[in-house]
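Example 3.
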Amino acid sequence: MRVSATLPDSELPRQWYNLAADIPHALLPPLAPDGSVLKPEQLSALFPETLIEQEASSQRWIDIPEEVLEILARWRPTPLVRARNFERLLNTPARIYYKNESVSPAGSHKPNTAVPQAYYNKLAGTTRLTTETGAGQWGSALSFASAQFGLECQVFMVRSSYDKKPYRKVMMQTWGASCVPSPSPHTRAGRKILEAQPDSPGSLGIAISEAVEAALEDSSGKTHYALGSVLNHVMLHQTIIGLEAKRQLALFGEKSPDTIVACVGGGSNFAGLSFPFIKEKIDGANIDIIPVEPASCPSMTRGLYAYDFGDTAGMTPLLPMYTLGHNFMPSPNHAGGLRYHGMAPLVSAAAKQGLLRPQSISQVECFSAAVQFARSEGIIVAPETSHAVAQVIREAVRAREERREKVILFGLSGHGLLDLQGYAEYFSGDIANTPLSEEELDSSLASLPKVGPAL
Amino acid sequence: MRVSATLPDSELPRQWYNLAADIPHALLPPLAPDGSVLKPEQLSALFPETLIEQEASSQRWIDIPEEVLEILARWRPTPLVRARNFERLLNTPARIYYKNESVSPAGSHKPNTAVPQAYYNKLAGTTRLTTETGAGQWGSALSFASAQFGLECQVFMVRSSYDKKPYRKVMMQTWGASCVPSPSPHTRAGRKILEAQPDSPGSLGIAISEAVEAALEDSSGKTHYALGSVLNHVMLHQTIIGLEAKRQLALFGEKSPDTIVACVGGGSNFAGLSFPFIKEKIDGANIDIIPVEPASCPSMTRGLYAYDFGDTAGMTPLLPMYTLGHNFMPSPNHAGGLRYHGMAPLVSAAAKQGLLRPQSISQVECFSAAVQFARSEGIIVAPETSHAVAQVIREAVRAREERREKVILFGLSGHGLLDLQGYAEYFSGDIANTPLSEEELDSSLASLPKVGPAL
């Protein structure tokens, strides 16, 4: 009985897939703060030219550089595993597969884009990268990738995560990066927040403001900014996940999955697994594609589709996306990587165009699901990933009730070995659900900028 | 340029290799405490019959059960990676390969034996397993494996590690196991130590005494003990590592490696990688095979080859092995998994018969090596593994000086993501070398039992 499909390294994908080439209604452009359409060169203070080209590209397939493949091939293709023990536990007729991205050196899918971003920056003469991180997965991944190319790396980490996970900082330090809690006194954006709220737990939006400011203030042009999610080029780099998964499912003798599940924060993990399958859906396949977000940060299930800033201070371009408003301050729940007010424009467009079925789940159900998964399949997943696991249980139980064999594919985006404090609090009963009230939501949505067309 | 060899899952080894079949001078038997040769049935209070048979077997190849393969295949075959970035850093003509066991759910090679041990116990009607753990790698692995088969699991964890690594306990708890610091008040052996030294940091020898006692005191016969290293059947189960590595090296176009390096505590990681190659060496191949131990716990480089107990309280049979004396109390250095007074009889016999070249290294050099490896290859290794990395650097530098192309294969036994406190102390300069003095060594060796033949 086959439980794992090892893809020969000769089958490692050599090109990324760009959903912008196939999405039925063309992607809306980003806007400058004054509401005019952003010119690509307006991004050149932040990103190297190749990434800006990828950001605006509508080419379907884009070559992966050999130097990038040489690094990714240390752990890719990642395993695609049939979760037979989990199926037995759930007593379901569904066949459940997970794509295990936790085997990377940083423990998540994030190196898939950190490595090419560091590579293109190195080629362009960049010597230093700045970035933000929520749970720490992205900051770790960029620290790792920067070390591969001899780049300095400065990470602004959301304070609530920084305080809960001191070892993330040590991890980044081991790779030679520096990590500071955000909001920090190092930037104007950080100081402004600290003046208003000295004990601010921070947010991804604030940390992005700080990292962008830190990159822009170096006038030599040798410091660039790197973003771990949201942008089109990040989604692009992650598609290697889904491209591998398609080939591996075929090795199991499966055609298209019936259901695809992945957690979403900024959207990159979800996009990586699902975009190659969204192409199939556009071409006529019947696939239920489910992004899962925390009930405490429900941008796709309760937010608006509108132009909004990517960060809190309003330093980034305006992006067309599902958003809770850039001033949104999520409750400090454990899935730090999902605490983001917006959603990748490509993922948002796919949802707006009816290709997705977004769901939200509260964290107690997620931790319970993660423990069931750990005890049956063995992997202790990241709190972010636990949202996908909880949705898979819902789908597997429904398959049992409907007595329907179906194929569920889900993204195991990362392990939770740096997040065990969350598990400890779950076991001691110290984890509560923190749903978002209507008042908080309305107040946050009132911060939406008044520029650009209504969507 | 190939950096990784993915072995198709159809090539997953289906049999373990037993070095006892080929070692030139037959293995000496274990002895009962009175000096008589131990009868296999004297082990039946601790282990199920199949494991006792494997312990005494001289059959060369032993089938791996399908149920075990079904679990191992979730992450096996593990990657064999050419460390090209590390080679560049060291400017060496050597080609360096590492076998990456850190991708298992527990983060190390330990599940390779935890899974079959839990399986054979389940078959035999066992409902509960007891064990000890040093750094926590083995306790985590047995907790994981027990959950796969619905067994209860109780882990006695060496207190110095327990205090330094609180999250190991959470990890075991997530898999449904219980974990207590050792020495504990739960056993006579633990209470005796605590009376003499209430703040005892513990040792693997003490924790083994406690776990053995906890298994023996359940007269229903449904509680068994599981050992994560030292014994022949454990070495056997780990050989899947080296068997895969041989096939993967061939995919790179390499013949035998010139040098094999792995860290040793009880011996299982080293045995797993090297035994299939020791077979080649016995058959005439010229391979330099190097087990590396901490300078603070140098059983092979400074201990005696003698019959000694496996535990501190003298509850286990006497084993023929390199030992520092079963009363040896290693300094609380960070490589908790290597803090064991003895060495696996099979590894000891291979060393005694001239097949190995044991080395010892102090921990500051090891952490420095681990940081160089993390920044070039990206994996943050366990402190245990860092001993192998440090030796590889020595060998690679020698290859450069001798201008000699050679092939170095080393065992990356586990990641250090639960050991980041050690890295933090290294960065802050709080790590010191703690070599063993002649006086301490003499005093500890004086505890050797006076039974059995001189070796």
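The mean pLDDT of chain B is 94. The CA atoms of residues 296 and 435 of chain B lie 5 Å apart.
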